[in-house]
Sequence to fold (288 residues):
Amino acid sequence: MEKVIFDGQLINRSEASVDIEDRGYQFGDGVYEVIRVYNGKMFTSKEHLQRLFESGKKIGMDIPYGLDEIKAMLEDLIQANNLTLGTVYLQVTRGVAPRNHMFPSSDVKPMFVAYTREVARPEENMMNGVKTISVEDIRWLLCDIKSLNLLGNLLAKQKAADAGCFEAIQHRNGTVTEGSLSNVSIVVDGVVKTHPANHLILNGISRQVMLKTCEKAGIPFAEKPYTLDELKNADEVFLTGTTVEVMPIIEVDGQRIGNGKPGEITKKLQELFKAEIEEQCGQLFIQQ
Ligand SMILES: Cc1ncc(COP(=O)(O)O)c(C=O)c1O
Fold:
């Protein structure tokens, strides 16, 4: 029987039911995280949970549990569902209250839910690279908050899917921001360049892991904005994200990147990323 965490309790999924006046359901008034699980262990859980608390703080919502308490709940959930390779999704909404734009009184307790899902590593895409399109970034200006309001991201991702592409690369007036569910980096003359972590992007945990591996391996990098033109003429382009890890991009808007194959630095970063996973979660094996 699949278990979930509902209002902080580990229960059967069939017993969990969301109130129609949950503010997450009505307004998207809440925050979330997706954490990767390899070999039954969470990867970078502390960083994800710290970001969850930061997101909560930025929307003026107090999460009614401590970081270690949430981590322990998620570990119990992973164990109860026998999850070895997948993700754990968690969200906290501002709770259940009569519909009103103003925040409810402080006695309304935020609602914490979580569930797990089996997800393989995207090995084929990681090996061959993926095609992308560019789209205008039409989202709001607090993209650093991992908020439940994802309509802008959904519209972008759907445009990519309709074009037969894996991801949409968003830009504001020609400056590349990020993907719909990933961060985007380029490599030019051996230097990795990625948008600075400000209000225009989500500061991806995978982005941070990737930058840390650059530092450790002596690969030069810069957290600087770059244009759509630079992206299309870069030697290499890649995505980072919890489910995509480090994923090469071989095409943008039908234009080939480099020689149309995953680049050497991207491949090196994939190896370094895998080493970080293995350090925390144990050895990874190729899936059948
Ligand atoms: C808009 C956006 N940017 C970047 C990312 C990558 O973040 P992370 O590496 O923490 O998964 C995500 C992940 O869901 C995302 O939704």
User: Anything to note?
Assistant: The chain has a mean pLDDT of 98. The first strand starts at residue 3 and ends at 6. The two ends are 26 Å apart (CA to CA). The chain has two domains: 3-118, 123-281.
